[in-house]
Amino acid sequence: MAQKTVLIVYAHQSGGSFNSAVKDVAVEALRQQGYKVVVSDLYAMNFRASATMEDITGEVTNPEHFKYGEETMHAWKEGRLSDDIIAEQRKVEAAELVIFQFPMYWFSVPAIMKGWIDRVLTQGFAFSLQKMYNNGIFKDKKAMLSFSTGSMQTMYRPDGINGDINVTLWPLQNGVLHYCGFQVLAPQVFWCPGHSPPANRTAMLDGWRARLKTLLVERPLTFAPSEMFDLTFPGGFVLRPEVREEQSTRPHGITTGHHLGKPLPPDNQLKADDPSPLTTS
What PANTHER family does its record include (predicted)? Predict the structure, then answer.
């Protein structure tokens, strides 16, 4: 049996950081279980964040009106993407699981990691209009976010000053990972380690180490299957009428994003739901 691979896309400037310790725990624990662990240390690599014409070798179709998505899709098909992008795409192809490790910046990922997302997950390689969400290109792979916050957990509750963390996570977990087909594992959130005593930080790392023992067999988060929608331009890619009618009697929306004007399903972006017809695999 071939050795399974985990890719950690890591973004922190300091080897003395809490995020570095979290990354090191994952590397050690996963290797002890027999996994091959590959780390893309974006700052150490000086990975370029900006998506530009330099990402393509050779001529572009329309230099006067450069469309990054279209041009990189053609370049991917023709093997003309820059070497740094190709190298990262090969890592993704080889991985059964991709872990994004980062400190949360402005309710999202650091710019260097956003650049990795923009540049590596090109159209054709990571998604297409025919292959997205639960029918996506990476539907047989898993991915997850592992990150630290600068604010304590209560600040990210529905009644907290920062708002519901489930809403914060929706663009990354649904709009990036699930959109590319990944089975999205529940995030590993390290609440406010920078303002926590050493014993609390140690407990956080111990909890992560324990979770890693069974991480790859966890049930993924719940998202609305594409089959619920009319996947045509005339139909507008909206819920099919019979699905909307069936959902009308339920107390909560389908997901954090597909709330249908109802209360959000509790912790939809934080915890795997019980098995149901909505659960994707």
Answer: NAD P H OXIDOREDUCTASE-RELATED, NAD(P)H DEHYDROGENASE [QUINONE] 1 ISOFORM 1
